[in-house]
């Protein structure tokens, strides 16, 4: 039994996807309710009008040329492709459309069946962008670059007014739009990804935001780990002062500056007096506490640009650029004054003194040896004093 036209129309009208039939003149002769909802018209309003009204303007010439070609093809084509559609309100969407020429009693018709896949395509694009960001994170991209990419991804591909990577100290690592005080996702110890949605995000959209946050958390943790490793490589683990490696780098910088610009450099070698006796009598815990306090006092007594390094158990070096004899003596006096107050460890007070050797001149490497020798002489003279050497 052959289906009647009414039966066929009923079947087409009940199809789950949008369906539009167009004649050789490009007029719509049939549309189901799903097509009306997709394009924002009633199906009655669509019938009799040009199919071009359903296409975005920039694609109309191309689509119409293809339509005419389909009708002229000897063997009717049936295929699936994407097409840009235009809604009644002027908004655009991507449609996944199946096209084909069918033969009817009224002549050949172009039959298009499709659905809006804009959301799916957008979701796929978000996943691709997220995967690319993850690959760059694994490859060791700089966290600041990843943060900038992250906020652009969120701002450009999700319905949000802004996004920001906000560090624990309140500073912004990257920002796009106006994040305001929206959603706060933790991305590390105190760091946050702040997102201001225009509406409630779907589960899929929130999964993208969380994935971005997780990627940033890993990248920032790596940044801190690397910074910590770099810091530990050039700093004394007990006092936090520069170690021999960083001191050597500082001496090289000072030497290069001296060769380029001239001017004197001051190197002070500071050696605690009788530290071994304190260590032996009260234990290494007391000795360590004393060294930490001593290092703090040295740091506070020097200028901000000066370098303080621990080069031995109770031996410290201060490197000062642009320092003459008078300024070197004044600095040594400040150091002695800073050392003078007793150090309290537990319930006991410990009086400490230091022998300071000062060397002033142009060659910081030679100055270091001179300052060491001067400190040895100061200690030999009873300690708690400073000796100065002028080189050149």
Describe the structure in brief.
Helix content is 45%, strand content 26%. The chain has helices at 5-13, 33-39, 43-46, 60-72, 118-138, 143-157, 203-234, 244-261, 275-282, 284-301, 325-339, 364-380; strands at 18-22, 28-31, 78-86, 92-104, 107-116, 160-166, 172-177, 183-186, 192-197, 265-272, 307-310, 315-321, 343-345, 348-350, 354-361, 386-390.
Key terms:
single chain, alpha+beta, Beta-Lactamase, Alpha-Beta Plaits, 3 domains, 12 helices, 26% strand
Explain this structure to me?
This protein is α+β, with helices and mostly antiparallel strands and 392 residues long. The chain has three domains: 5-116, Beta-Lactamase; 120-234, GAF domain (Beta-Lactamase, 2-Layer Sandwich); 244-390, 2-Layer Sandwich (Alpha-Beta Plaits), CATH 3.30.70.270. 45% of the residues lie in helices and 26% in strands. It contains twelve helices and 16 strands. The chain has helices at 5-13, 33-39, 43-46, 60-72, 118-138, 143-157, 203-234, 244-261, 275-282, 284-301, 325-339, 364-380; strands spanning 18-22, 28-31, 78-86, 92-104, 107-116, 160-166, 172-177, 183-186, 192-197, 265-272, 307-310, 315-321, 343-345, 348-350, 354-361, 386-390. The protein has a five-stranded antiparallel sheet. Strands 11-12-10-15-16 form a five-stranded mixed sheet, sandwiched between helices.
Instruction: Compute the separation of the termini in Å.
Output: 116 Å
By DSSP, the count of extended strands is 16
Task: Outline the low-pLDDT stretches.
Answer: none
CATH class of the largest domain: Alpha Beta
CATH structural architecture of the largest domain: 2-Layer Sandwich
Strand content: 25-35%
- What do we call the CATH topology of the largest domain? Alpha-Beta Plaits
- Using only C-alpha atoms, the radius of gyration works out to 39 Å
Strand arrangement, largest sheet? 2-1-5-4-3
> How would you name the CATH homologous superfamily of the largest domain?
Reverse transcriptase/Diguanylate cyclase domain
Percent of residues in helices: 40-55%
Q: Strand-and-helix sequence, N→C?
A: HEEHHHEEEHHEEEEHHEHHEEHEEEHE
- Structural category is alpha+beta
Inertia-based shape? rod-shaped
> What's the number of structural domains?
3
Number of helices: 12
Biggest sheet statistics: 5 strands, antiparallel
User: What is the residue-mean pLDDT, rounded to a whole number?
Assistant: 85
């Amino acid at each position: 039994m052959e289906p009647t036209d009414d039966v066929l129309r009923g079947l087409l009208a009940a199809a789950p996807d949008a369906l539009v039939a167009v004649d050789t003149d490009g007029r719509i002769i049939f549309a189901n309710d799903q097509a009306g909802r997709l394009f924002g018209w009633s199906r009655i309003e669509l019938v009799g009008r040009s199919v071009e009204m359903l296409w975005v303007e920039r694609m109309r010439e191309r689509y119409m040329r293809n339509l005419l070609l389909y009708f002229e093809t000897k063997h009717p084509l049936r295929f699936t492709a994407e097409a840009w559609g235009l809604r009644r309100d002027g908004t655009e969407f991507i449609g996944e459309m199946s096209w084909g020429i069918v033969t009817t009693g009224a002549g050949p018709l172009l039959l298009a069946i499709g659905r809006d896949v804009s959301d799916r395509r957008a979701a796929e694009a978000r996943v691709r962008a997220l995967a690319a960001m993850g690959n760059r994170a694994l490859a060791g991209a700089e966290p600041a670059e990843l943060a900038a990419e992250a906020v652009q991804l969120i701002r450009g591909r999700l319905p949000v007014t802004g996004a920001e990577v906000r560090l624990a100290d309140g500073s912004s690592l990257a920002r796009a739009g106006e994040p305001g005080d929206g959603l706060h996702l933790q991305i590390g110890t105190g760091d946050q990804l702040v997102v201001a949605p225009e509406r409630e995000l779907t589960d899929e959209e929130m999964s993208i935001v969380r994935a971005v946050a997780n990627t940033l958390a890993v990248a920032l943790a790596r940044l801190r780990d690397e910074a910590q490793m770099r810091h530990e490589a050039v700093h004394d683990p007990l006092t936090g002062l520069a170690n021999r490696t960083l001191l050597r780098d500082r001496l090289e910088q000072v030497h290069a500056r001296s060769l380029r610009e001239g001017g004197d450099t001051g190197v002070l070698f500071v050696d605690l007096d009788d530290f071994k006796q304190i260590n032996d009598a009260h234990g290494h815990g007391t000795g360590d506490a004393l060294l930490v306090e001593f290092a703090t006092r040295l740091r506070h007594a020097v200028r901000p640009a000066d370098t303080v390094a621990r080069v031995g158990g109770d031996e410290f070096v201060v490197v000062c650029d642009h320092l003459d004899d008078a300024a070197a003596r004044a600095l040594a006096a400040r150091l002695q004054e800073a050392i003078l107050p007793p150090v309290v460890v537990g319930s006991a007070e410990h009086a400490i003194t230091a022998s300071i050797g000062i060397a002033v001149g142009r060659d910081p490497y030679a100055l270091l040896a001179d300052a060491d020798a001067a400190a040895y002489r100061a200690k030999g003279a009873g300690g708690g004093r400073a000796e100065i050497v002028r080189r050149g």
